[in-house]
């Protein structure tokens, strides 16, 4: 069951990932530069100077903060789809079972697209 400890762990993990994203440029790995209309800042993806290590930071951000979560999302939703298909196969094929299976599949696809 989902309890208070799960919520606390999820919150702590969220803060850990946010800090892992935001702190490296503050301590010298890459840097922040003004973006757009100069009213916000973001990671410097453009500079190729030796002292900033931007390429390694961009690879780190891509792998740790996009590719890994995307893999986890695909794995978890894939397992969910398999569980729904097993449950549907265990029951007799009825219209409501097929409709529920289609609805779950549609929701999984929408959630993955929303993540992207």
From TrEMBL:
The keyword Membrane applies. GO terms for cellular component: membrane. It is found in: Membrane. This is Rhodopsin. Residues 1-116 form the G-protein coupled receptors family 1 profile domain. PROSITE patterns: G_PROTEIN_RECEP_F1_2. The lineage of its organism: Eukaryota, Metazoa, Chordata, Craniata, Vertebrata. Its main location: membrane. Keywords: G-protein coupled receptor, Membrane, Receptor, Transducer, Transmembrane, Transmembrane helix. The chain crosses the membrane at residues 7-27, 57-77. It comes from Hippocampus reidi (slender seahorse). It comes from the Eukaryota.
């Amino acid at each position: 069951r989902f309890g208070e400890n799960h919520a606390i762990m999820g919150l702590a993990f969220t803060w850990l990932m946010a800090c892992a994203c935001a702190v490296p440029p503050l301590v010298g790995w890459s840097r922040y530069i003004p973006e757009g209309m100069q009213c916000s800042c973001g990671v410097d993806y453009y500079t190729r100077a030796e002292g900033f290590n931007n390429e390694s930071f961009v690879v780190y951000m891509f792998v740790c903060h996009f590719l890994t979560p995307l893999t986890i999302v695909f794995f978890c939703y894939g397992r969910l789809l398999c569980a729904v298909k097993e449950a549907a196969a265990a029951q007799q094929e009825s219209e409501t079972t097929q409709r529920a299976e289609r609805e779950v599949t549609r929701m999984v696809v929408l959630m993955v697209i929303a993540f992207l």
